[in-house]
C-alpha cells in the first residue's frame, strides 16, 4: 500500500479510469408497476404481496405491493432523463421474466413458453433510448421475480428443472438485446433469494425452514437446494452465452453477490474464525463454487449431506462462470462466535464495539450503519480472494430523514450524503492506493421505490418520489454523486 489515505497527496491526482461506469440501479418489480401490461403474467412477488385477505396475513409493512411502484413502466423516459441529469454514464436495471416470456399461454411441446413480443418491444425501446443518450445499459436478468407458473409447476428454484427454463429466458434476452447490451448480470443476490425467501420466509415465496426443522433442530435443506439450482442456472446460461453470443456480439457476463464486510469483534481466535465463517456463509457459499469450483469446506462441514454435491460435470461449468465479480454491499458487521442459525454460519453480528461505541451512523433500516473503511477493505478482500475485476452493482443508504420529513425538507438528505461521501472516497482509495480493479459503481437507488417487505416505508432513492402524484424530486445526494463522479473520472 503506497499511502494509507488519499489526503497524503493532492486529490486531483487521483482519478478513476475514463471508462469507469457510474450510475444507478433499480429492479423491475420495485419500479415498474403495471403488472398486467404488455402481456405480463404474475411472479411470486405478485402472489406474495397479495395474500388471501381472509387470512389477515400481510407480507409487507404497509400491506402494499409493486402494483403501482414508481410507475416506471410508463414513466421510463422520465427515469432516463433523470439519469442524464445526474451525469450517469450507466444504468443497471432488471427485466421482468414474465413480461418477456409468455406465461399466459401454455408451454409448447418442448415444455417451454414462447416469447412475448410485446414485452421484448417494451425493453427494446428503453435500451435504445439509453444507448442514444450515451448511457451504458447493464441488464440484470433475474431480480427475484420468478414466474408464478414455474413455482406452481415444479417448485421453481427448488427443482433443477428451473435451469432449463432460466436458460431459455436468458437466450431470448441475449438474442433480443445482445447487439446493444454488453454488460449482463445473470442473477441478483442468491443469498437473499435462498435465505430470505426459503429460510426466513420474509421474502417471496415466503417459505420458512423454521417451520420445517430437521430432527437435529437444524434449519431445513431448502435454502441450500435453492442456492444450488441458482448457481447451476447462472452457470448454464453463461455457458450458452459464451458458446453462442460472446464471439459475435461480445460483452461481459457475471453474477451479483451480496455481502457485508465481516470483522472479528475482537482478536479472540474464536471470533476471528467466526468472521471467516460469516464470509463463507454469506459469500463463499456462491463465490467459491463460481470462482474456485467448490463449496467452502466450512459449509460442507456444518451442513453435511444437506449441502447438495457439485458433480464433477457441473463443477466444470460452474467454475469460472463469471467474467467479473458483481458486488452489492451496504455495510460492515462485527462478528462473534455463537448463535444457532446455520444460515448465518452460527455467528452473532452487530455494530457495537467492545468499548460500546458504534461503527457509524444508523440507517432507517436496522441492518445498515455507515462504515466506509469496511467498503475499502471488502473491495480488497474480494479482489484478493477471487481475483476478478469488481463491478459494484449496488451500494446505498436509507436515511431516517426520508421517513420523517416531508417536502421540501426531505430532499436535504444529509445522512445519505455522508454515506456516499465516505463510500465514494473508500472506493477511490481501493482503486488508486490499493490497486483493486473496480469497474463500476451503481448507487442504490435511482428512485425511492418498492422496498420489498418494507413496502414503501423505506426509501433508498437519490430521488424523492411523491407516490400520490409520481412527482420526482432530486435529493442532495444526487447532486453530491454527480459532482463527485464528474471530479473523479478521468477524461
Ligand atoms: C438489495 N439484508 O437487497 C436488493 O438487491 C435491492 O433490491 C434492495 O432494494 C436493496 O438491497 C436495499 O435493501 C437486500 O437484509 C435486502 O442484508 C436485504 C439485505 C441485503 C440486500
TrEMBL record:
Q: Which reaction does it catalyse?
A: Hydrolysis of terminal, non-reducing beta-D-glucosyl residues with release of beta-D-glucose
Can you tell me which residues form the catalytic site?
394
User: What EC identifiers does the entry list?
Assistant: 3.2.1.21
Q: Does the keyword Hydrolase apply?
A: yes
Family annotation (Pfam families): Glyco_hydro_1
Q: What class of enzyme is it?
A: hydrolase
Q: Which UniProt keywords apply?
A: Carbohydrate metabolism, Cellulose degradation, Glycosidase, Hydrolase, Polysaccharide degradation
A biological process from GO:
cellulose catabolic process
The cross-references to SUPFAM superfamilies, in alphabetical order and at most eight, read: (Trans)glycosidases
Identify the PROSITE patterns for this entry. Answer: GLYCOSYL_HYDROL_F1_1, GLYCOSYL_HYDROL_F1_2
Q: Which superkingdom, per the lineage?
A: Eukaryota
InterPro entries under this entry? GH, GH_1_N_CS, Glyco_hydro_1, Glyco_hydro_1_AS
**One annotated GO molecular function:** cellobiose glucosidase activity
- Can you tell me which family this protein belongs to? Belongs to the glycosyl hydrolase 1 family.
Q: What does this protein do?
A: Plays an important role in cellulose degradation. Shows hydrolytic activity against several glycosidic compounds.
Among PANTHER family, the record links this protein to: GLYCOSYL HYDROLASE, LP05116P
Q: What is this protein called?
A: beta-glucosidase
Species of origin: Hypholoma sublateritium (strain FD-334 SS-4)
Amino acid at each position: 500500500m503506497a499511502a494509507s489515505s488519499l489526503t497524503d497527496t493532492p486529490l486531483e491526482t487521483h482519478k478513476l479510469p475514463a471508462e469507469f461506469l457510474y450510475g444507478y440501479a433499480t429492479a423491475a418489480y420495485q419500479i415498474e408497476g403495471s403488472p398486467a401490461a404488455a402481456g405480463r403474467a404474475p411472479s411470486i412477488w405478485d402472489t406474495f404481496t397479495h395474500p388471501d385477505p381472509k387470512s389477515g396475513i400481510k407480507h409487507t409493512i404497509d400491506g402494499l405491493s409493486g402494483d403501482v411502484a414508481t410507475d416506471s413502466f410508463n414513466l421510463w423516459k422520465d427515469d432516463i432523463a433523470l439519469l442524464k441529469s445526474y451525469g450517469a454514464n450507466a444504468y443497471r436495471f432488471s427485466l421482468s421474466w414474465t413480461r418477456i416470456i409468455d406465461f399466459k399461454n401454455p408451454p409448447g411441446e418442448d415444455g417451454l413458453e414462447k416469447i412475448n413480443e410485446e414485452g421484448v418491444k417494451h425493453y427494446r425501446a428503453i435500451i435504445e433510448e439509453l444507448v442514444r443518450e450515451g448511457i451504458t445499459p447493464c441488464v440484470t436478468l433475474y431480480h427475484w421475480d420468478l414466474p408464478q407458473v414455474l413455482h406452481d409447476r415444479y417448485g421453481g428454484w427448488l427443482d433443477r428443472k428451473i435451469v432449463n427454463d432460466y436458460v431459455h429466458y436468458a437466450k431470448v434476452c441475449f438474442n433480443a438485446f445482445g447487439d446493444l447490451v454488453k454488460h449482463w448480470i445473470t442473477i441478483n443476490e442468491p443469498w437473499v433469494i435462498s435465505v430470505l425467501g426459503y429460510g426466513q420466509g420474509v421474502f417471496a415465496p415466503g417459505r420458512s425452514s423454521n417451520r420445517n426443522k430437521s430432527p437435529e433442530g437444524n434449519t431445513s435443506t431448502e435454502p441450500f437446494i435453492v442456492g444450488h439450482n441458482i448457481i447451476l442456472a447462472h452457470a448454464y446460461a453463461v455457458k450458452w452465452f459464451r458458446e453462442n453470443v460472446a464471439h459475435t456480439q461480445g460483452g461481459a457476463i457475471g453474477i451479483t453477490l451480496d455481502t457485508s464486510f465481516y470483522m472479528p469483534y475482537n482478536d479472540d481466535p474464536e471470533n476471528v474464525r467466526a468472521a471467516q465463517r460469516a464470509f463463507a456463509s454469506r459469500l463463499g457459499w456462491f463465490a467459491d463454487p463460481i470462482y474456485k469450483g467448490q463449496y467452502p469446506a466450512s459449509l460442507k462441514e456444518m451442513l453435511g449431506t444437506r449441502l447438495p454435491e457439485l458433480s464433477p460435470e457441473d463443477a466444470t461449468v460452474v467454475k469460472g462462470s463469471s467474467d467479473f465479480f458483481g458486488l452489492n454491499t451496504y455495510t460492515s458487521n462485527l462478528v462473534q462466535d455463537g448463535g444457532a442459525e446455520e444460515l448465518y454460519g452460527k455467528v452473532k453480528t452487530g455494530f457495537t464495539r467492545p468499548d460500546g461505541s458504534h461503527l457509524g451512523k444508523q440507517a432507517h433500516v436496522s441492518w445498515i450503519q455507515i462504515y466506509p473503511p469496511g467498503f475499502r477493505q471488502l473491495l480488497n478482500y474480494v479482489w484478493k480472494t477471487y481475483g476478478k475485476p469488481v463491478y459494484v452493482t449496488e451500494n446505498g443508504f436509507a436515511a431516517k430523514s426520508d421517513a420523517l420529513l416531508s417536502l421540501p425538507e426531505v430532499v436535504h438528505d444529509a445522512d445519505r450524503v455522508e454515506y456516499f461521501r465516505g463510500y465514494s472516497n473508500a472506493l477511490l482509495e481501493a482503486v488508486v492506493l490499493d490497486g483493486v480493479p473496480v469497474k463500476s459503481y451503481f448507487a442504490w437507488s435511482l428512485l425511492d421505490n418498492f422496498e420489498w417487505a418494507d413496502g414503501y416505508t423505506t426509501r433508498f432513492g437519490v430521488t424523492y418520489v411523491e407516490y400520490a402524484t409520481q412527482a420526482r424530486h432530486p435529493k442532495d445526494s444526487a447532486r453530491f454523486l454527480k459532482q463527485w463522479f464528474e471530479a473523479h473520472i478521468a477524461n
